[in-house]
Amino acid sequence: MSGEIAIWVDGLQAAALPLPDRGLEFGDGLFETLLLHNGDPLYLDLHLARLRRGCAALGFADSEPAVLEQSRRACADAVTRGWRWCALRVTLTRGGGPRGYAPPADAKIRIVISATNLHDVPSRMAEPAALGLASIRWPTQPALAGIKHLNRLEQVLAAREYRASGTDEAVMLDQRGDVVSVVAGNLFLVRDGQLFTPPLDACGIAGTRRELVIRRWSQALGLAVKEQAIAPAELETAQEIFYCNSLFGPRPVASFGQRNWNSHPVCTALYAAYKGELA
Amino acid sequence: MSGEIAIWVDGLQAAALPLPDRGLEFGDGLFETLLLHNGDPLYLDLHLARLRRGCAALGFADSEPAVLEQSRRACADAVTRGWRWCALRVTLTRGGGPRGYAPPADAKIRIVISATNLHDVPSRMAEPAALGLASIRWPTQPALAGIKHLNRLEQVLAAREYRASGTDEAVMLDQRGDVVSVVAGNLFLVRDGQLFTPPLDACGIAGTRRELVIRRWSQALGLAVKEQAIAPAELETAQEIFYCNSLFGPRPVASFGQRNWNSHPVCTALYAAYKGELA
Protein backbone atom coordinates (compact mmCIF):
# COMPACT_ATOMS: atom_id res chain seq x y z
CA MET A 1 0.00 0.00 0.00
CA SER A 2 2.62 2.56 1.14
CA GLY A 3 4.21 2.72 -2.32
CA GLU A 4 0.79 3.35 -3.92
CA ILE A 5 -0.30 6.40 -1.95
CA ALA A 6 1.21 9.88 -1.57
CA ILE A 7 -0.05 12.39 1.01
CA TRP A 8 0.35 16.16 1.36
CA VAL A 9 -0.71 18.38 4.27
CA ASP A 10 -0.90 22.09 3.47
CA GLY A 11 1.29 21.60 0.44
CA LEU A 12 4.05 19.52 1.99
CA GLN A 13 4.44 15.77 1.67
CA ALA A 14 3.56 14.39 5.06
CA ALA A 15 2.78 11.18 6.90
CA ALA A 16 0.69 12.79 9.64
CA LEU A 17 -1.91 15.46 10.42
CA PRO A 18 -1.07 18.13 13.03
CA LEU A 19 -3.28 17.86 16.14
CA PRO A 20 -5.70 19.12 17.24
CA ASP A 21 -7.71 19.09 14.03
CA ARG A 22 -11.44 19.76 13.84
CA GLY A 23 -11.79 17.45 10.85
CA LEU A 24 -10.89 14.55 13.13
CA GLU A 25 -12.68 15.90 16.21
CA PHE A 26 -16.07 16.68 14.64
CA GLY A 27 -15.96 15.88 10.93
CA ASP A 28 -15.72 19.66 10.47
CA GLY A 29 -14.67 19.56 6.84
CA LEU A 30 -15.31 18.64 3.23
CA PHE A 31 -13.75 16.47 0.56
CA GLU A 32 -13.68 15.72 -3.14
CA THR A 33 -12.47 12.60 -4.92
CA LEU A 34 -11.17 13.38 -8.39
CA LEU A 35 -10.05 11.00 -11.10
CA LEU A 36 -6.65 11.86 -12.55
CA HIS A 37 -5.77 10.70 -16.04
CA ASN A 38 -2.11 11.22 -16.88
CA GLY A 39 -2.01 13.94 -14.23
CA ASP A 40 -5.15 15.70 -15.50
CA PRO A 41 -7.99 16.05 -12.93
CA LEU A 42 -11.21 15.24 -14.80
CA TYR A 43 -14.20 17.60 -14.51
CA LEU A 44 -12.28 19.78 -12.06
CA ASP A 45 -14.82 22.62 -12.52
CA LEU A 46 -17.69 20.44 -11.21
CA HIS A 47 -15.66 19.33 -8.19
CA LEU A 48 -14.67 22.91 -7.40
CA ALA A 49 -18.29 24.06 -7.72
CA ARG A 50 -19.46 21.45 -5.19
CA LEU A 51 -16.56 22.32 -2.90
CA ARG A 52 -17.58 26.00 -3.05
CA ARG A 53 -21.17 25.06 -2.12
CA GLY A 54 -19.79 23.06 0.80
CA CYS A 55 -17.53 25.90 1.95
CA ALA A 56 -20.51 28.27 1.88
CA ALA A 57 -22.68 25.84 3.90
CA LEU A 58 -19.99 25.33 6.55
CA GLY A 59 -18.72 28.92 6.61
CA PHE A 60 -15.21 28.03 5.43
CA ALA A 61 -12.94 30.82 4.21
CA ASP A 62 -12.23 30.69 0.48
CA SER A 63 -9.24 28.48 -0.09
CA GLU A 64 -9.65 27.67 -3.77
CA PRO A 65 -6.32 29.19 -4.88
CA ALA A 66 -4.45 27.03 -2.34
CA VAL A 67 -6.51 23.95 -3.29
CA LEU A 68 -5.67 24.47 -6.95
CA GLU A 69 -1.99 25.12 -6.34
CA GLN A 70 -1.54 22.12 -4.03
CA SER A 71 -3.60 19.83 -6.29
CA ARG A 72 -1.48 20.82 -9.27
CA ARG A 73 1.64 19.75 -7.41
CA ALA A 74 0.07 16.42 -6.41
CA CYS A 75 -0.98 15.83 -10.03
CA ALA A 76 2.52 16.54 -11.30
CA ASP A 77 3.91 14.18 -8.68
CA ALA A 78 1.54 11.39 -9.83
CA VAL A 79 2.87 11.76 -13.37
CA THR A 80 6.45 11.51 -12.07
CA ARG A 81 5.54 8.30 -10.30
CA GLY A 82 4.11 6.89 -13.52
CA TRP A 83 0.55 6.64 -12.11
CA ARG A 84 -1.60 6.80 -15.24
CA TRP A 85 -4.96 6.61 -13.46
CA CYS A 86 -5.11 7.95 -9.98
CA ALA A 87 -7.68 8.88 -7.28
CA LEU A 88 -6.96 12.32 -5.87
CA ARG A 89 -8.72 13.02 -2.59
CA VAL A 90 -8.76 16.67 -1.51
CA THR A 91 -9.86 17.13 2.10
CA LEU A 92 -10.47 20.52 3.72
CA THR A 93 -10.78 20.83 7.49
CA ARG A 94 -11.31 23.83 9.74
CA GLY A 95 -7.84 23.15 11.17
CA GLY A 96 -7.03 23.42 14.87
CA GLY A 97 -8.47 25.59 17.59
CA PRO A 98 -9.54 25.61 21.22
CA ARG A 99 -11.51 22.71 22.77
CA GLY A 100 -15.22 22.46 21.98
CA TYR A 101 -17.71 22.53 19.11
CA ALA A 102 -17.46 26.28 18.38
CA PRO A 103 -14.96 26.94 15.60
CA PRO A 104 -12.57 29.89 15.86
CA ALA A 105 -13.90 32.84 13.84
CA ASP A 106 -10.54 33.15 12.08
CA ALA A 107 -10.01 29.42 11.46
CA LYS A 108 -7.26 28.66 8.97
CA ILE A 109 -8.44 25.98 6.52
CA ARG A 110 -6.17 22.94 6.40
CA ILE A 111 -5.76 21.05 3.11
CA VAL A 112 -4.94 17.34 3.02
CA ILE A 113 -4.39 15.78 -0.39
CA SER A 114 -3.83 12.10 -1.06
CA ALA A 115 -3.15 10.44 -4.39
CA THR A 116 -3.72 6.70 -4.81
CA ASN A 117 -2.58 4.73 -7.84
CA LEU A 118 -5.57 3.00 -9.52
CA HIS A 119 -3.48 1.19 -12.16
CA ASP A 120 -5.69 0.55 -15.19
CA VAL A 121 -9.00 0.09 -13.36
CA PRO A 122 -10.76 3.21 -14.79
CA SER A 123 -9.65 2.58 -18.38
CA ARG A 124 -12.74 0.49 -19.27
CA MET A 125 -16.33 0.15 -18.08
CA ALA A 126 -16.48 -1.65 -14.74
CA GLU A 127 -18.00 -5.12 -14.49
CA PRO A 128 -21.76 -5.08 -13.77
CA ALA A 129 -22.20 -4.78 -10.00
CA ALA A 130 -24.21 -7.02 -7.68
CA LEU A 131 -26.17 -4.71 -5.36
CA GLY A 132 -27.33 -5.45 -1.84
CA LEU A 133 -29.71 -3.34 0.22
CA ALA A 134 -28.12 -1.47 3.15
CA SER A 135 -29.89 -1.81 6.50
CA ILE A 136 -28.73 1.61 7.64
CA ARG A 137 -30.47 4.56 5.97
CA TRP A 138 -29.34 8.08 5.10
CA PRO A 139 -30.01 10.61 7.87
CA THR A 140 -32.58 13.30 7.10
CA GLN A 141 -30.72 16.62 6.93
CA PRO A 142 -31.90 19.11 4.29
CA ALA A 143 -29.40 21.76 5.46
CA LEU A 144 -26.41 19.61 4.42
CA ALA A 145 -27.92 17.53 1.61
CA GLY A 146 -25.92 17.34 -1.61
CA ILE A 147 -22.58 18.57 -0.27
CA LYS A 148 -19.65 16.25 0.38
CA HIS A 149 -18.77 16.87 4.02
CA LEU A 150 -16.79 14.59 6.31
CA ASN A 151 -19.76 13.10 8.24
CA ARG A 152 -19.96 9.78 6.40
CA LEU A 153 -20.71 7.14 9.02
CA GLU A 154 -23.83 5.80 7.32
CA GLN A 155 -21.91 5.05 4.14
CA VAL A 156 -19.10 3.44 6.15
CA LEU A 157 -21.55 1.13 7.92
CA ALA A 158 -23.38 0.30 4.69
CA ALA A 159 -20.06 -0.48 2.97
CA ARG A 160 -18.98 -2.64 5.88
CA GLU A 161 -22.23 -4.59 5.55
CA TYR A 162 -22.08 -5.19 1.79
CA ARG A 163 -18.44 -6.27 2.00
CA ALA A 164 -19.37 -8.82 4.65
CA SER A 165 -22.28 -10.10 2.55
CA GLY A 166 -20.21 -10.39 -0.62
CA THR A 167 -21.96 -7.89 -2.92
CA ASP A 168 -20.16 -5.12 -4.84
CA GLU A 169 -22.28 -2.22 -3.65
CA ALA A 170 -25.56 -1.54 -1.83
CA VAL A 171 -28.66 0.57 -2.34
CA MET A 172 -29.20 3.09 0.46
CA LEU A 173 -32.67 4.38 1.36
CA ASP A 174 -33.81 7.53 3.11
CA GLN A 175 -35.70 7.55 6.42
CA ARG A 176 -39.03 7.19 4.57
CA GLY A 177 -37.81 4.09 2.76
CA ASP A 178 -37.29 5.60 -0.68
CA VAL A 179 -34.16 4.97 -2.75
CA VAL A 180 -31.40 7.61 -2.56
CA SER A 181 -28.18 6.17 -3.97
CA VAL A 182 -25.63 3.43 -3.57
CA VAL A 183 -22.88 3.84 -0.97
CA ALA A 184 -20.41 5.48 -3.35
CA GLY A 185 -22.46 6.73 -6.27
CA ASN A 186 -25.76 8.04 -7.58
CA LEU A 187 -28.36 5.64 -8.92
CA PHE A 188 -30.47 5.76 -12.10
CA LEU A 189 -33.16 3.50 -13.47
CA VAL A 190 -34.36 3.12 -17.05
CA ARG A 191 -38.12 2.77 -17.71
CA ASP A 192 -40.08 3.38 -20.89
CA GLY A 193 -37.04 4.88 -22.60
CA GLN A 194 -36.58 7.46 -19.85
CA LEU A 195 -34.09 7.85 -16.98
CA PHE A 196 -35.19 8.34 -13.37
CA THR A 197 -33.05 9.31 -10.38
CA PRO A 198 -34.01 10.34 -6.82
CA PRO A 199 -34.00 14.00 -5.77
CA LEU A 200 -31.35 14.88 -3.18
CA ASP A 201 -33.15 17.53 -1.15
CA ALA A 202 -33.06 15.78 2.24
CA CYS A 203 -29.92 13.64 2.09
CA GLY A 204 -27.33 12.15 -0.24
CA ILE A 205 -24.45 13.58 -2.23
CA ALA A 206 -24.92 15.46 -5.50
CA GLY A 207 -22.36 13.60 -7.60
CA THR A 208 -20.40 15.26 -10.38
CA ARG A 209 -21.12 12.31 -12.73
CA ARG A 210 -24.81 12.45 -11.79
CA GLU A 211 -24.80 16.03 -13.04
CA LEU A 212 -23.05 14.96 -16.25
CA VAL A 213 -25.55 12.14 -16.85
CA ILE A 214 -28.47 14.54 -16.35
CA ARG A 215 -27.14 17.57 -18.22
CA ARG A 216 -24.98 16.11 -20.94
CA TRP A 217 -24.59 12.39 -21.56
CA SER A 218 -28.32 11.55 -21.50
CA GLN A 219 -28.98 14.39 -23.95
CA ALA A 220 -26.36 13.01 -26.32
CA LEU A 221 -28.45 9.82 -26.31
CA GLY A 222 -31.78 11.64 -26.66
CA LEU A 223 -32.95 10.40 -23.23
CA ALA A 224 -35.00 12.53 -20.84
CA VAL A 225 -34.10 12.39 -17.11
CA LYS A 226 -36.65 12.88 -14.38
CA GLU A 227 -35.85 13.41 -10.70
CA GLN A 228 -38.52 11.71 -8.62
CA ALA A 229 -38.96 9.50 -5.57
CA ILE A 230 -38.18 5.84 -6.30
CA ALA A 231 -39.33 2.89 -4.19
CA PRO A 232 -36.93 -0.07 -3.88
CA ALA A 233 -39.44 -2.33 -5.66
CA GLU A 234 -39.32 -0.07 -8.72
CA LEU A 235 -35.65 -0.91 -9.15
CA GLU A 236 -36.48 -4.58 -9.62
CA THR A 237 -39.01 -3.89 -12.40
CA ALA A 238 -36.77 -1.43 -14.27
CA GLN A 239 -35.43 -2.27 -17.73
CA GLU A 240 -31.97 -1.42 -16.51
CA ILE A 241 -30.31 0.23 -13.53
CA PHE A 242 -26.86 1.74 -13.17
CA TYR A 243 -24.91 4.02 -10.87
CA CYS A 244 -22.10 6.48 -11.39
CA ASN A 245 -19.25 8.03 -9.46
CA SER A 246 -16.06 9.90 -10.24
CA LEU A 247 -13.83 6.83 -10.39
CA PHE A 248 -16.05 4.45 -12.40
CA GLY A 249 -18.13 6.85 -14.45
CA PRO A 250 -21.40 5.00 -15.28
CA ARG A 251 -21.33 1.40 -13.98
CA PRO A 252 -24.02 -1.15 -14.90
CA VAL A 253 -25.87 -3.20 -12.29
CA ALA A 254 -26.05 -6.99 -12.67
CA SER A 255 -28.47 -7.79 -9.87
CA PHE A 256 -30.65 -6.36 -7.11
CA GLY A 257 -33.20 -8.21 -4.99
CA GLN A 258 -34.87 -10.91 -7.09
CA ARG A 259 -33.80 -9.37 -10.38
CA ASN A 260 -30.86 -9.93 -12.72
CA TRP A 261 -29.96 -7.86 -15.77
CA ASN A 262 -27.91 -9.42 -18.57
CA SER A 263 -27.71 -6.48 -20.94
CA HIS A 264 -26.98 -2.84 -20.18
CA PRO A 265 -27.48 -0.87 -23.39
CA VAL A 266 -28.21 2.52 -21.79
CA CYS A 267 -25.30 2.40 -19.34
CA THR A 268 -22.99 1.18 -22.10
CA ALA A 269 -24.03 4.10 -24.33
CA LEU A 270 -23.59 6.59 -21.47
CA TYR A 271 -20.18 5.15 -20.72
CA ALA A 272 -19.27 5.60 -24.40
CA ALA A 273 -20.38 9.25 -24.22
CA TYR A 274 -18.20 9.69 -21.11
CA LYS A 275 -15.24 7.92 -22.71
CA GLY A 276 -15.65 10.08 -25.81
CA GLU A 277 -15.11 13.17 -23.69
CA LEU A 278 -11.87 11.79 -22.26
CA ALA A 279 -10.38 11.13 -25.68
CA MET B 1 -2.80 27.25 24.27
CA SER B 2 0.12 24.89 23.59
CA GLY B 3 1.10 24.77 27.24
CA GLU B 4 -2.48 23.94 28.24
CA ILE B 5 -3.07 20.85 26.13
CA ALA B 6 -1.33 17.48 26.01
CA ILE B 7 -1.99 14.90 23.29
CA TRP B 8 -1.31 11.16 23.01
CA VAL B 9 -1.75 8.89 19.99
CA ASP B 10 -1.84 5.16 20.76
CA GLY B 11 -0.22 5.77 24.11
CA LEU B 12 2.64 8.03 23.05
CA GLN B 13 2.76 11.78 23.41
CA ALA B 14 2.34 13.14 19.88
CA ALA B 15 1.69 16.29 17.94
CA ALA B 16 0.19 14.58 14.90
CA LEU B 17 -2.07 11.77 13.71
CA PRO B 18 -0.68 9.16 11.28
CA LEU B 19 -2.34 9.33 7.85
CA PRO B 20 -4.46 7.94 6.35
CA ASP B 21 -6.98 7.84 9.20
CA ARG B 22 -10.65 6.95 8.78
CA GLY B 23 -11.63 9.24 11.64
CA LEU B 24 -10.52 12.18 9.51
CA GLU B 25 -11.70 10.75 6.20
CA PHE B 26 -15.26 9.77 7.18
CA GLY B 27 -15.80 10.56 10.86
CA ASP B 28 -15.43 6.79 11.37
CA GLY B 29 -14.99 6.94 15.13
CA LEU B 30 -16.28 7.80 18.58
CA PHE B 31 -15.31 10.04 21.45
CA GLU B 32 -15.89 10.77 25.12
CA THR B 33 -15.18 13.95 27.06
CA LEU B 34 -14.43 13.22 30.71
CA LEU B 35 -13.92 15.64 33.55
CA LEU B 36 -10.76 14.98 35.55
CA HIS B 37 -10.55 16.17 39.12
CA ASN B 38 -7.06 15.85 40.56
CA GLY B 39 -6.37 13.17 37.98
CA ASP B 40 -9.57 11.24 38.73
CA PRO B 41 -11.91 10.73 35.72
CA LEU B 42 -15.44 11.34 37.03
CA TYR B 43 -18.18 8.81 36.26
CA LEU B 44 -15.78 6.76 34.18
CA ASP B 45 -18.18 3.80 34.22
CA LEU B 46 -20.91 5.80 32.44
CA HIS B 47 -18.49 7.04 29.79
CA LEU B 48 -17.17 3.53 29.19
CA ALA B 49 -20.71 2.17 28.91
CA ARG B 50 -21.59 4.72 26.20
CA LEU B 51 -18.32 4.03 24.42
CA ARG B 52 -19.14 0.30 24.43
CA ARG B 53 -22.56 1.03 22.91
CA GLY B 54 -20.84 3.13 20.24
CA CYS B 55 -18.26 0.42 19.50
CA ALA B 56 -21.07 -2.11 19.09
CA ALA B 57 -23.01 0.19 16.72
CA LEU B 58 -19.95 0.86 14.55
CA GLY B 59 -18.48 -2.64 14.74
CA PHE B 60 -15.28 -1.55 16.47
CA ALA B 61 -13.09 -4.20 18.08
CA ASP B 62 -13.01 -4.06 21.86
CA SER B 63 -10.29 -1.68 22.91
CA GLU B 64 -11.35 -0.93 26.47
CA PRO B 65 -8.17 -2.27 28.13
CA ALA B 66 -6.03 0.02 25.94
CA VAL B 67 -8.39 2.98 26.50
CA LEU B 68 -8.15 2.48 30.25
CA GLU B 69 -4.39 2.05 30.28
CA GLN B 70 -3.72 5.09 28.07
CA SER B 71 -6.26 7.24 29.92
CA ARG B 72 -4.61 6.37 33.22
CA ARG B 73 -1.30 7.63 31.91
CA ALA B 74 -2.87 10.86 30.64
CA CYS B 75 -4.54 11.36 34.03
CA ALA B 76 -1.26 10.86 35.86
CA ASP B 77 0.41 13.31 33.52
CA ALA B 78 -2.28 15.94 34.22
CA VAL B 79 -1.52 15.61 37.95
CA THR B 80 2.17 16.08 37.26
CA ARG B 81 1.38 19.25 35.35
CA GLY B 82 -0.63 20.57 38.29
CA TRP B 83 -3.89 20.61 36.31
CA ARG B 84 -6.53 20.31 39.03
CA TRP B 85 -9.54 20.31 36.70
CA CYS B 86 -9.05 18.98 33.24
CA ALA B 87 -11.07 17.94 30.17
CA LEU B 88 -9.94 14.55 28.91
CA ARG B 89 -11.09 13.76 25.40
CA VAL B 90 -10.74 10.12 24.34
CA THR B 91 -11.18 9.62 20.59
CA LEU B 92 -11.33 6.20 18.92
CA THR B 93 -10.99 5.89 15.15
CA ARG B 94 -10.98 2.87 12.86
CA GLY B 95 -7.36 3.77 12.01
CA GLY B 96 -5.93 3.57 8.51
CA GLY B 97 -6.76 1.31 5.60
CA PRO B 98 -7.23 1.27 1.84
CA ARG B 99 -9.07 4.05 -0.03
CA GLY B 100 -12.88 4.08 0.12
CA TYR B 101 -15.79 3.84 2.53
CA ALA B 102 -15.44 0.12 3.32
CA PRO B 103 -13.40 -0.39 6.49
CA PRO B 104 -10.86 -3.21 6.63
CA ALA B 105 -12.31 -6.24 8.41
CA ASP B 106 -9.28 -6.37 10.71
CA ALA B 107 -9.08 -2.61 11.40
CA LYS B 108 -6.83 -1.71 14.32
CA ILE B 109 -8.54 0.88 16.51
CA ARG B 110 -6.50 4.05 17.01
CA ILE B 111 -6.75 5.94 20.30
CA VAL B 112 -6.19 9.69 20.50
CA ILE B 113 -6.29 11.27 23.95
CA SER B 114 -6.07 14.97 24.68
CA ALA B 115 -6.04 16.64 28.07
CA THR B 116 -6.89 20.34 28.38
CA ASN B 117 -6.38 22.36 31.54
CA LEU B 118 -9.70 23.89 32.69
CA HIS B 119 -8.19 25.81 35.63
CA ASP B 120 -10.92 26.32 38.24
CA VAL B 121 -13.89 26.57 35.88
CA PRO B 122 -15.67 23.36 37.02
CA SER B 123 -15.21 24.04 40.74
CA ARG B 124 -18.52 25.94 41.10
CA MET B 125 -21.88 26.07 39.33
CA ALA B 126 -21.58 27.89 35.99
CA GLU B 127 -23.25 31.27 35.48
CA PRO B 128 -26.81 31.02 34.16
CA ALA B 129 -26.61 30.72 30.35
CA ALA B 130 -28.32 32.84 27.72
CA LEU B 131 -29.74 30.44 25.12
CA GLY B 132 -30.34 31.12 21.46
CA LEU B 133 -32.22 28.88 19.04
CA ALA B 134 -30.07 27.14 16.42
CA SER B 135 -31.26 27.40 12.82
CA ILE B 136 -29.73 24.04 11.92
CA ARG B 137 -31.55 21.00 13.28
CA TRP B 138 -30.38 17.56 14.33
CA PRO B 139 -30.42 14.99 11.52
CA THR B 140 -32.95 12.15 11.86
CA GLN B 141 -30.95 8.95 12.35
CA PRO B 142 -32.40 6.39 14.77
CA ALA B 143 -29.59 3.89 14.04
CA LEU B 144 -26.95 6.20 15.56
CA ALA B 145 -29.03 8.17 18.07
CA GLY B 146 -27.60 8.45 21.57
CA ILE B 147 -24.02 7.44 20.82
CA LYS B 148 -21.16 9.91 20.66
CA HIS B 149 -19.67 9.37 17.21
CA LEU B 150 -17.45 11.77 15.27
CA ASN B 151 -20.13 13.10 12.86
CA ARG B 152 -20.84 16.40 14.62
CA LEU B 153 -21.29 19.01 11.90
CA GLU B 154 -24.73 20.16 13.06
CA GLN B 155 -23.39 21.00 16.51
CA VAL B 156 -20.39 22.77 14.99
CA LEU B 157 -22.65 24.95 12.82
CA ALA B 158 -25.03 25.66 15.69
CA ALA B 159 -22.09 26.63 17.95
CA ARG B 160 -20.67 28.87 15.24
CA GLU B 161 -24.03 30.62 15.02
CA TYR B 162 -24.55 31.20 18.75
CA ARG B 163 -20.99 32.48 19.15
CA ALA B 164 -21.60 35.00 16.37
CA SER B 165 -24.91 36.07 17.94
CA GLY B 166 -23.41 36.46 21.41
CA THR B 167 -25.37 33.86 23.41
CA ASP B 168 -23.76 31.20 25.62
CA GLU B 169 -25.48 28.20 24.09
CA ALA B 170 -28.37 27.32 21.76
CA VAL B 171 -31.39 25.04 21.77
CA MET B 172 -31.30 22.51 18.93
CA LEU B 173 -34.48 21.03 17.46
CA ASP B 174 -35.16 17.82 15.55
CA GLN B 175 -36.46 17.73 11.99
CA ARG B 176 -40.07 17.87 13.26
CA GLY B 177 -39.33 21.04 15.23
CA ASP B 178 -39.30 19.53 18.72
CA VAL B 179 -36.60 20.34 21.27
CA VAL B 180 -33.71 17.86 21.56
CA SER B 181 -30.85 19.47 23.48
CA VAL B 182 -28.44 22.35 23.50
CA VAL B 183 -25.28 22.11 21.38
CA ALA B 184 -23.14 20.62 24.16
CA GLY B 185 -25.56 19.23 26.69
CA ASN B 186 -28.95 17.73 27.46
CA LEU B 187 -31.87 19.96 28.33
CA PHE B 188 -34.47 19.72 31.11
CA LEU B 189 -37.49 21.81 32.01
CA VAL B 190 -39.29 22.09 35.34
CA ARG B 191 -43.10 22.23 35.34
CA ASP B 192 -45.54 21.49 38.17
CA GLY B 193 -42.72 20.18 40.34
CA GLN B 194 -41.67 17.63 37.74
CA LEU B 195 -38.73 17.39 35.31
CA PHE B 196 -39.19 16.86 31.59
CA THR B 197 -36.53 16.04 29.00
CA PRO B 198 -36.82 14.98 25.34
CA PRO B 199 -36.44 11.31 24.32
CA LEU B 200 -33.34 10.60 22.21
CA ASP B 201 -34.63 7.86 19.92
CA ALA B 202 -34.08 9.63 16.58
CA CYS B 203 -31.13 11.94 17.24
CA GLY B 204 -29.06 13.57 19.97
CA ILE B 205 -26.46 12.29 22.42
CA ALA B 206 -27.36 10.38 25.57
CA GLY B 207 -25.32 12.37 28.07
CA THR B 208 -23.74 10.82 31.13
CA ARG B 209 -25.01 13.70 33.32
CA ARG B 210 -28.49 13.36 31.77
CA GLU B 211 -28.46 9.79 33.02
CA LEU B 212 -27.34 10.94 36.47
CA VAL B 213 -30.06 13.60 36.64
CA ILE B 214 -32.71 11.04 35.67
CA ARG B 215 -31.55 8.08 37.75
CA ARG B 216 -29.95 9.65 40.79
CA TRP B 217 -29.88 13.39 41.43
CA SER B 218 -33.60 14.01 40.76
CA GLN B 219 -34.47 11.13 43.07
CA ALA B 220 -32.37 12.63 45.84
CA LEU B 221 -34.61 15.71 45.49
CA GLY B 222 -37.84 13.71 45.27
CA LEU B 223 -38.50 14.88 41.70
CA ALA B 224 -40.00 12.66 39.00
CA VAL B 225 -38.50 12.87 35.49
CA LYS B 226 -40.53 12.25 32.37
CA GLU B 227 -39.11 11.79 28.86
CA GLN B 228 -41.48 13.33 26.36
CA ALA B 229 -41.55 15.53 23.27
CA ILE B 230 -41.10 19.23 24.11
CA ALA B 231 -42.07 22.11 21.80
CA PRO B 232 -39.80 25.20 21.89
CA ALA B 233 -42.70 27.32 23.22
CA GLU B 234 -42.95 25.04 26.27
CA LEU B 235 -39.46 26.08 27.31
CA GLU B 236 -40.56 29.70 27.61
CA THR B 237 -43.47 28.85 29.92
CA ALA B 238 -41.45 26.51 32.16
CA GLN B 239 -40.75 27.42 35.80
CA GLU B 240 -37.09 26.76 35.16
CA ILE B 241 -34.85 25.21 32.52
CA PHE B 242 -31.32 23.93 32.73
CA TYR B 243 -28.90 21.77 30.79
CA CYS B 244 -26.07 19.47 31.78
CA ASN B 245 -22.86 18.08 30.38
CA SER B 246 -19.75 16.41 31.69
CA LEU B 247 -17.75 19.60 32.21
CA PHE B 248 -20.41 21.85 33.79
CA GLY B 249 -22.65 19.31 35.50
CA PRO B 250 -26.11 20.97 35.74
CA ARG B 251 -26.05 24.56 34.46
CA PRO B 252 -28.98 26.97 34.91
CA VAL B 253 -30.51 28.91 32.02
CA ALA B 254 -30.96 32.68 32.34
CA SER B 255 -32.92 33.36 29.16
CA PHE B 256 -34.52 31.82 26.09
CA GLY B 257 -36.78 33.52 23.57
CA GLN B 258 -38.94 36.13 25.36
CA ARG B 259 -38.34 34.61 28.78
CA ASN B 260 -35.87 35.34 31.59
CA TRP B 261 -35.38 33.30 34.74
CA ASN B 262 -33.92 34.96 37.83
CA SER B 263 -33.94 32.03 40.21
CA HIS B 264 -32.88 28.45 39.60
CA PRO B 265 -33.79 26.44 42.68
CA VAL B 266 -34.04 23.01 41.02
CA CYS B 267 -30.79 23.32 39.08
CA THR B 268 -29.04 24.65 42.20
CA ALA B 269 -30.26 21.67 44.23
CA LEU B 270 -29.22 19.20 41.50
CA TYR B 271 -25.82 20.85 41.32
CA ALA B 272 -25.52 20.43 45.10
CA ALA B 273 -26.37 16.73 44.75
CA TYR B 274 -23.68 16.44 42.05
CA LYS B 275 -21.13 18.36 44.11
CA GLY B 276 -21.93 16.18 47.11
CA GLU B 277 -20.86 13.12 45.13
CA LEU B 278 -17.51 14.69 44.27
CA ALA B 279 -16.68 15.45 47.88
Considering the chains and any ligands shown, give keywords for the structure.
globular, alpha+beta, 7 helices, homodimer, D-amino Acid Aminotransferase, Chain A, domain 1, six-stranded antiparallel sheet, nine-stranded mixed sheet, 29% helix, 16 strands, 279 residues
Q: How would you portray this structure in words?
A:
Two copies of one chain form a homodimer. Helix content of chain A is 29%, strand content 29%. The first copy, chain A, contains seven helices and 16 strands. The first copy, chain A, has helices spanning 22-26, 44-58, 64-80, 153-165, 208-220, 232-236, 265-278, and strands at 5-9, 12-13, 16-18, 29-37, 40-41, 85-93, 110-117, 129-133, 169-173, 179-182, 186-191, 194-197, 225-227, 240-245, 249-256, 259-260. In chain A, strands 8, 9, 10, 11, 12, 13, 14, 15 and 16 form a nine-stranded mixed β-sheet that branches. In chain A, a hairpin with a 2-residue loop joins strand 4 (29-37) and strand 5 (40-41). Chains A and B meet through strand 1, strand 3, helix 1, strand 6 and strand 7 of A and strand 1, strand 3, helix 1, strand 6 and strand 7 of B.
SSE blueprint and pairings:
Two copies of one chain form a homodimer.
Chain A lengths: L4 E5 L2 E2 L2 E3 L3 H5 L2 E9 L2 E2 L2 H15 L5 H17 L4 E9 L16 E8 L11 E5 L19 H13 L3 E5 L5 E4 L3 E6 L2 E4 L10 H13 L4 E3 L4 H5 L3 E6 L3 E8 L2 E2 L4 H14 L1
Parallel strand pairs in A: 8-9, 8-15, 12-13
Antiparallel strand pairs in A: 1-2, 1-7, 4-5, 4-6, 6-7, 9-10, 11-12, 11-14, 14-15, 15-16
